[in-house]
Amino acid sequence: MTWLPERVYLTDHPHVTVARPTLAIVAYVDDALAWSCTHAAALAETFGQTVDVSRMQWFMTSRLSHWRRVDPQRVSELTDHLRADPLFGRVRHLLRFRWADDCGAPSYEFSYREVDPQLSERLGYVRISMPVDAPLDRLVRLTAVLSDLPVWCVTAGYMPSVNPLYVPESYGSVLAWARRCHGLHVPAPDIFGPSVRSGMPGLGWLNFISAKAAAAWRIDVPATLASATARGLDVSEKHGGLWLRAGDEPELGDANALQPAEHLGRLAQLMAPHLIAEPPALPAPFGDAVADWMMRFTFPEQWT
């Protein structure tokens, strides 16, 4: 990590975290019914076996009016909220599930959004977060697990965790971090969800693009592999799609210290033609600057 703070909090209420940097994974999911019946609950259990669940004492769903405490020793009961009855045979449109160590901007979090493809073109997603000092092998392992499930795409690396109750404060901090640290991926899956079918929502340290997404984004997999090899980039074929890795470990970079996120920058330039062409605005004060952020490695003078 560089100069990024451990967390940003309200001066008058220091127990309220509005933003914090994390190591995180965001996966846009495919085959919503399979996720509803099986994959979401199984992945939450895998996450619970990977991290220190004793800290994750809060959960909520869109069926509840407030956060509730959870016994970390009863994770299987908790994940029952994620497991739909396959006999019912329907996706629970816009179901939201969150399991975390903090009700504001958590460091440990498992978040899941379910979307019925018959009712919306947007994609559902999973977000997994861990503290920035968590072992990197956990991030690698969970990203690999996700890439073997029915997903559209996966991105992993440094990402901010934001408090939805304090949006201007959260995104003000995120904008300042992103201006300086070009290696910070800013995920907003509820906002990008409707646009992901048309293009990549950005790049992180680890990335997986499914064969279906590659076709939709007009990525020529063999040609991309050849170009990546010529540039010395770590890109390989997986399940008919692409697995892309930006260096041996994640980079934040620091524009003020003239320290670029070099490996991620080279990978981003390769994939720039496939990014979302007209990304939706993020909450203020980030706003429409998201378009310049998306192209920060190709046109850095428009971002820093």
Question: What would your notes on this structure say?
Answer:
By secondary structure, the protein is an alpha+beta fold. Helices cover 28% and strands 21% of the residues. It has helices at 32-50, 75-78, 136-147, 167-180, 189-192, 211-216, 221-230, 262-271, 290-294, and strands spanning 8-9, 17-29, 58-61, 68-69, 96-100, 109-113, 125-130, 151-162, 206-209, 234-238, 241-245. Strands 1, 2, 3, 4, 5, 6, 7, 8, 9, 10 and 11 form an 11-stranded antiparallel beta sheet that branches. Strand 3 and strand 4 form a beta hairpin. Helix 1 (32-50) runs antiparallel to helix 3 (136-147). The protein is globular and about 50 Å long. It starts with 7 loop residues before the first strand and ends in a 10-residue tail after the last helix.
Secondary-structure blueprint:
Layout: E1 8-9, E2 17-29, H1 32-50, E3 58-61, E4 68-69, H2 75-78, E5 96-100, E6 109-113, E7 125-130, H3 136-147, E8 151-162, H4 167-180, H5 189-192, E9 206-209, H6 211-216, H7 221-230, E10 234-238, E11 241-245, H8 262-271, H9 290-294
Antiparallel strand pairs: 1-2, 2-7, 2-8, 3-4, 3-5, 5-6, 6-7, 8-9, 9-11, 10-11
Helix pairs in contact: 1-3
